[in-house]
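Morning. Coffee machine broken again, so started the prediction first thing and wrote up yesterday's gels while waiting. Chain of 671 residues, entered below exactly as on the submission form.
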Amino acid sequence: MCGIAGIMQHDPSRSIDPAVLVAMAAIQHHRGPDGFGYKIIDDRGVGFSHARLAIIDLNAERACQPFLSDSGQVMIAHNGEFYDYKRIRADLTSRGYQFKTKSDTELLMHLSDRLGLAGALPHLRGEFGFAIYERSEDRLTLVRDRFGVKPLFWTMTPEGFVFGSEIKVLMAHPAVKRRIAPHGLYHQLMQLMVPGTTAFEGIHAVQPGQQVIVERRGCKLQVKVQTYWDLDFPLLRDRGTRREDEDYMEELRRRFVEAVQLKLEADVPVACYLSGGVDSCTILGIAAACQQSPVKAFTVGFDDADYDETAISRQMAEAVGADQDIIQIDGGQLYDHFARTIWHTERSIYNTFTIAKLLLSEHVNKAGYRVVMSGEGSDELFAGYPQLRLDMIRHGMEDASPEERADLESWLEESNRLFKGNLLADQPLDDPALTALIGFTPSSLQSWLSSAPQVLDLMHPDHRAAVQDYSPGQAIANALDPDQIKGRHALDKAQYVWIKTQFESQVLCWAGDRVDMANSMEARPAFLDHPLVEFAVTLPPYLRFRGHSDKFILRETMKSLLPQALYERQKFAFMAPPSHTDVVKQKAMRALADTHLSKAAVEVAGLLDPASVDQVLLKHADEDTSDAERTQLDAVINHMLSVQMMHEHFIASDLPKRAREQAAQLGWAVA
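Came back before lunch.
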């Protein structure tokens, strides 16, 4: 895992300052502390740079990126991992291709030479974000992995096209405008992002499974976007004959074991994140069976019994003989690291578990590890989240009686009472645009969309006026592919929408890559091996949610591997206790609010309305406010703190200067 950056000028004769490329690499030093490189194709106005985290081929000189082909026709900068690369390399070698490194990146150059980029993409298995420039076509292509595990951003300036693994990388370029957009602010304050957008004006995210293709026409660059992969849940009419449960389980077992084996491939030790959930526990169990020595397992614990999972995680670690390392975090401690976390997430957060994850990855790094396997993706594939199961109950159980559905819904909401007002909306909401597209408004979006009126009141009058006639639900609906939604089962629709919205921007972004790579930590989500996913989307809905059992097929397939208590335990979302749950956390949150949400700070940033901010803080402190509403207000306060810190980090600060200073401190300089 690494960080990439690059520039393509409108005018090919316009020179590229190599110091800018070096600075763009230096500002993401946390993604690649093991060295940097840059290359410029002078007569084409194209330059790439790279900050390297050594995981495959530890030879600093041999595997230094960017890679330029011997012919000078192709240049590549790559962030991520290609699994199964040894087999592909052997196949290419047998066809006469010669490799200079042991890096998995080099195979992309030869594979695309043999098959073309479009032909090579189906063979790439893993998580990645890469840039490839083809001189013969005068074409730059950005490619992001199928699920968005690895981030990749781009913008267009008067000088040309700029890209990078993080937003701050783009902002290190002097020509890139730095401004929080009104619509971006609106979505940051409600947590819910439109796919492909960011908080910042003119800065876009490459979407999962997509290519951004940049071609020069005269002295003007043109950008087009193409999708090369999508989930493609089966149409209801194509689901075919029902197979025995055991047939599905055996295929799941085979594909899952293969995925874990592939994710263990590295030239450095691989550890596991371990919570009290089925996902990380099954990964740990298979990983332990694959290795001769005990697997290192890292767990985070909280000082609130309602949210702490260390006791049940210990059972799994003991069952497989893992070497478990637990970092215990108190809720007040989390707020000390809030601003540092926002520097890395580059977007708002609604719960401080993001900060806990940052501290966990820091602990793992200090313990001498830089690769871990994680359980992201399981809830998305097997309907683990309560919001997905609620949609199944309400819209996907045609054979159930009204009484049966009411009983299941009552059970689900009671068993997830801690998340009322957050993961589950306090009251049902219907968004006309989403309902028109999907047939219902997915529960995963309802709690955040329900905060829209309150969010409008929070915004500075100028920003509020700019979004007065804007519909966030309509914007999200417009960004979704209707051909991937029409004719599908209700649960398939709910999972698809979650994966395309909250999963990419939340779970994989600010709870995943951004806080892991903040500490030079590569996290590998085994459940997101795409052959496993392509099988999982074919699973009948009743195998994902049956009775009171979430992720039914995964539990049953791995039943023999799991301790009884874990097998019987319902899905519990990984969350940190909200600030209103004890006095220490409230005090810590208030200290941050006194600094970042003071009237003076709010007026300087010009993003929020000071009077409305005060009203939220007063209502949150009022003990007569219900727990569900205080939970939602806790998220709103976290969002307000986030956007204020984003302004301080990315707007008020001189990022090009900061990047140059970082390069100087590192000793990274133009050759």
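Residues 261 and 290 are 7 Å apart (CA to CA). Going to sketch it on the whiteboard this afternoon.
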